[in-house]
Design a protein that fits this description.
alpha+beta, 27% helix, globular
Length: 169
């Protein structure tokens, strides 16, 4: 008898829960959200190390021989025999507008356009970083830090590297 009463109680409880889920105070369905949804620009897949190998990095930077010191999908670093360095970074889910250079270059930034994509550049005496948007919330960064060339030449090298990466996509 108890089992039968428990089964009836459960059935009654289930009926109440189901009827409450379908009920609404006003008797009318909820209105659909208004406005147009924001279209997200898909990010480019820039590949490992910005799709660049040591030969390309050496040629585009103007440094000649470079050696890959470390490389993973988000950060690659090359060095030259004289101690100069080049770094590629891929920032995923990071808005470019909030980025500040970590490369030890000056705090001021200049707007740039690389193959039709907006970005920023930071320059110091012997270093430069070019950060370029690759989607709504992704961007890449090329940093050139030289013991010999001027910041302007480092910026030209960073721009060439960024352009090569984005042109492959």
């Amino acid at each position: 008898m108890r089992a039968r009463m428990a089964g009836s109680g459960l059935a009654l409880l289930a009926a109440l829960v189901l009827s409450a889920c379908g009920a609404s105070d006003s008797g009318t369905p909820a209105a659909a959200p208004s406005g147009t949804p924001h279209e997200i620009t898909p990010a480019l897949d820039v590949g490992l190390c910005g799709s660049a190998d040591a030969n390309q990095v050496g040629a585009l930077s103007g440094f000649g021989a470079v050696t890959l010191i470390s490389g993973d999908p988000l950060l690659c670093r090359w060095e030259t025999p004289d101690g100069s360095s080049i770094a590629f970074r891929w920032f995923r889910n990071s808005p470019i507008g909030e980025y500040r250079s970590e490369a030890g270059v000056s705090a001021g930034r200049t707007g740039i356009d690389i193959v039709g994509r907006a970005g920023f550049s930071w320059q110091a005496a012997h270093a430069c970083e070019a950060a370029v948007q690759t989607g709504d919330t992704d961007f890449i960064s090329w940093t050139v830090d030289s013991v010999a060339v001027t910041g302007a030449n480092a910026c030209a090298a960073a721009d060439r590297l960024a352009s090569a990466t984005l042109s492959k996509r």
